[in-house]
Structures are given as structure tokens and as C-alpha cells.
Amino acid sequence: MFSKTCQYGIKSTLYIALQSINENRVSLKDIAKEIDSPEAFTAKILQKLVHAGIIISVRGQMGGFLIEREKMDSLKLIQIVNAIDGDHIFVECGLGLSQCNSSFPCPLHEQFSKIRTDLKAMMETTSLLGFATGLHDGLTFLKR
């Protein structure tokens, strides 16, 4: 459902959050290695996340990427998706048709509308802290 870029963005953010919980900053190289992504591609994703105010980039020898602990509970997964992919997954036709709407629905309109609504609700209510804590507790994982 999400673009590959968005998947890497979510994985990157989760990894940074987990490291930030342990009060560690993490380098681009470490993030790219952990999520199995090329460094240049990961750098572009991280730039979008910094620009959106989701992560912080600190330069210098003691630098790296981090997320403030206080911010993790208010930061929702939908913010990561919107920063990378925008809101198209929540508004566009599931079949990619340009004229699909409730007045002129595609064959999947009603079913996809329900899925889209449920997905959006889950993304709006799932905090980064809750997701990262699940990762820390072994309930979720980053690598396949």
C-alpha cells in the first residue's frame, strides 16, 4: 500500500525512535544498514523527515539523528506517511481511476473506502512511542 520510500521512512523513524529512547543518536550509515537501504536514498528520506519536523539532525562529531522523547507520544504514524507520500493513499481510487467518487464509484469503491478509513484511523491513533516500544519489546521488527 505504501511506496517503498514511505516504508523506508517508517522503518528509519522507528529505528531512530528506538535509539532515541536509549538516548543514542544514530548516523546515516547505521540507519541505512539497519533498514537495508542505500545511503543516498536513505539520506533523501531523512531530509524529508527533518523538513517535516519528525526527526532532528545534529551535525558534528557527536551528531546524528534523534527524536525528542517528549515528542514521540504525540507523533503519529500518519505524520510520517504524509511527510513521505502525502495523503493520496487516503483519498485516491484504489484502482487508480481519476473519476472514482461516491457519485461515480469504481467496482472496488465501497470496499476500498472502508479499508482506507480503517487504515487512516489506525495511523492517526498509533503513536511513534507505542510503535517503538512494541519494537523494543520484540512485538514488531524492522528487518524481514
What report would you give on this structure?
A hairpin with a 5-residue loop joins strand 1 (56-58) and strand 2. This protein is 56% helix and 4% strand. Helix 1 (4-21) packs across helix 8 and helix 2 (28-35) packs across helix 3. It has one domain: Orthogonal Bundle (Arc Repressor Mutant, subunit A). The protein has 144 residues and is mainly α. InterPro entries: TR_Rrf2-type_CS, Tscrpt_reg_Rrf2, WH-like_DNA-bd_sf, WH_DNA-bd_sf.
Biggest sheet features? 2 strands, antiparallel
Q: Output the CATH class name.
A: Mainly Alpha
Span of the ends, CA to CA: 17 Å
Spell the H/E element sequence: HHHEEHHHHH
Helix content: 55-70%
**What coarse outline follows from CA principal-axis ratios?**
elongated
Count of runs of 4 or more consecutive helical residues: 8
CATH topology: Arc Repressor Mutant, subunit A
Radius of gyration (Å): 17 Å
Task: Report strand order across the widest sheet.
Answer: 1-2
Mean pLDDT comes to: 88
CATH architecture: Orthogonal Bundle
Structural class: mainly alpha
* Tally of distinct domains: 1
Q: How many beta strands in the DSSP annotation?
A: 2
Quaternary form: single chain
- Spans where pLDDT lies below 50 across 5 or more residues: none
Strand content: under 5%
Pfam family, one: Rrf2
Organism: Rhodonellum psychrophilum GCM71 = DSM 17998
Protein name: Rrf2 family transcriptional regulator
GO molecular function: DNA-binding transcription factor activity
